[in-house]
Amino acid sequence: MDKIVINGGKKLEGKVRISGAKNSALPLMAVSLLAPGEYRLREVPLLKDIDTAATLLSQLGVRLERKNHDIIMDSDGLNCFEAPYNLVKTMRASVLVLGPLLARLGKVKVSLPGGCAIGVRPINLHLQGLEALGAKITLQHGYIEAEAKKLKGAKINFDISTVTGTENLLMAASLAEGITILKNAAKEPEVVELANVLNKMGARIRGAGTNTVKIEGVKELKPTDHTIMPDRIEAGTFMIAAAITHGDIMITNCRPVHLDSLITTLKKTGVDIIPENTGIRVKGSKKIKSVNIKTSPYPGFPTDMQAQIMTLMTVADKESLITETVFENRFMHISELRRMGANIRVNGHKALVTGVPWLEGAPLMATDLRASASLILAGLKAEGSTEVSRVYHLDRGYENIENKLSNLGAEIKRITEYT
Ligand code: EPZ
Q: Which atom of ligand 1 is nearest to the CA of 233?
């Protein structure tokens, strides 16, 4: 397993280009199941999760070709409707084949995704939505089996805003007979991008990005090509890297509009954020001011940035209260940050962070994707050497992060351990 070693205290300066969005690429790869023919996706990040999705699609019979950051897919040869446990357990986003396979083949069998480090993460809302469209769903031996001769439009009200739940229903309803209305739909930019791509393919979706989305089913869809939008969470992570090292970073291939809530919060901590025509410039301030943060679905403060902003708050001037409202166990990074000298008290979903003057480098263990990013940020700040092990978590969502950081002046390297 690999580990990353950082010698902290360096100011990060220079330019970094953000990769394509993982959480956009994953549903857009599943889209290839909806209609035969050749799709081309550009700016697909080189990530473990993308490889897992490609393996799953090829096992379903999709022809895939990766040309650097492009992926060409053709589902003409789609000949299987089962997503096996060994793949689903490594990547929950495999459930995104549910909607398209049901719409295209009329049947699908997907292993129930287990929980993960950050929470139980059920998919009951996905299944309720598909049942509303007429699917007959049975659960047995750890698998979901769904069948539907023809999906029929319906009114669906999500109790909780669910990103992949909304994405599954957008894909399924696009080929259903009649009108589907999704109430309390997720508004994340990745959901809007999926709706835009489906419309490019001939779907009739209106209202994506608002609470209520209307989908008028069509008989068939056509393949398309698309350039994936930049990863807003990677961009946000680099903004915090600039803030915590009091650096000055130019972030290119980034859409500030997708980061409103984070930018507003960072400005309150004293960070200078200057939009320029080639991207966004982030200048850390001498003193980091404490702010309170509460995560919520888009356009609120993203849960995927909670661990990273908490690291920044560990070296802020006063106290900050951080409340995680989306997932029930997304504080796994706290025990590792404490080992570096951070002062954090946890009470349920709330963490009270009292700023300390410095962090000490230490051997750390990553537990989940965004927690591992928060430990890297802490290592950039800490005095001395920090080793983050189990960085396979990091590789799921950040392309080439150690090279991007070392190009900005970080003293960072990856060590492959053969233990
Ligand atoms: C997506 O996960 C993202 N993953 C996550 O990013 C992100 O943290 C999350 O949305 C929230 O923004 C992808 O897009 C591939 P949800 P998803 O369904 O869709 C509950 C990362 O770091 N819920 O919006 O699985 C659920 O338990 C990953 O890149 C139900 O109860 O999240 C959670 O508490 C981590 N029943 C809340 O809703 C359901 O049927 C939001 O989950 C579905 C969800």
A: 29
